[in-house]
Specification:
heterodimer, A: 117 residues, mainly beta, 4-stranded antiparallel sheet, 12 strands, 50% strand, B: 114 residues, 7-stranded mixed sheet, globular
Chain lengths: 117, 114
């Protein structure tokens, strides 16, 4: 069964420093991986996805993620954190779906990112 | 903003009641997925609709049901509400293209069951 794990409940970073939010995955077949961000009392916003190709994926708001097949990881990164990046971040993998669906996403529990001035 | 809208924003119901949540897809999208996000958890897949038919279901009982309309908007219905149904319900729309399509989420409906 497909699954993702986010090993850190919270990540604390000083503004201007690089940030990394970790994600590992377990899939049968090719992994299709996503990162979403959720601000308080809001829905999820899409940041980036890995389907195939380059292992470094660039996304919205200066975020990027590095796909590592041997380590089954898909860590989210940003070279210089902003206070406004403080939010809840979710890693997700495309599930096999039920009833033939390819459509569902399987989410991790989320990592709270706190960026201090 | 994604262009996916949901109504209502908040809802309070009592145990045993029924509720209908609504979702309007982003223009051009033909697929709608519904998720339940309990407090402190990641979203859990409820079901997906494509071309007005259920196209996959997560581990949710039959009292969770849905509809998709010809304009690709959608409803989530929950019967016989239980206290554990209290959660944020998220709708996501996408343009189906195999396994690579991206789901865009609405702001959610916060359901509280008393």
């Amino acid at each position: 069964a497909q699954s993702v794990a986010q090993p850190e409940d919270q990540v604390n970073v000083a503004e201007g420093n690089p940030l990394t939010v970790k994600c590992t995955y377990s899939v049968s077949g090719n992994p299709y991986l996503f990162w979403y961000v959720q601000y308080p009392n809001r829905g999820l916003q899409f940041l980036l996805k890995y389907i195939t190709g380059d292992n470094l994926v660039k996304g919205s708001y200066g975020f990027e993620a590095e796909f590592n097949k041997s380590q089954t990881s898909f860590h989210l990164k940003k070279p210089s954190a902003l206070v406004s990046d403080s939010a809840l971040y979710f890693c997700a993998v495309r599930g096999g779906g039920g009833g033939g669906s390819q459509g569902n996403l399987i989410f991790g529990k989320g990592t709270k990112l706190s960026v201090k001035p | 903003e994604t262009g996916v809208t949901q109504s209502p924003t908040h809802l309070i119901k009592t145990r045993g009641q029924q509720v209908t949540l609504r979702c309007s897809s982003q223009s051009g999208h033909n697929t709608v997925s519904w998720y339940q996000q309990a407090l402190g958890q990641g979203p859990q897949f409820i079901f997906q609709y494509y071309r007005e038919e259920e196209n996959g279901r997560g581990n949710f009982p039959p009292r969770f049901s849905g509809l998709q309309f010809p304009n690709y908007s959608s409803e989530l219905n929950v019967n016989a509400l239980e206290l554990d149904d209290s959660a944020l319900y998220l709708c996501a729309s996408s343009l189906r293209s195999g396994t690579t399509d991206t789901q865009y989420f609405g702001p959610g409906t916060r359901l509280t069951v008393l």
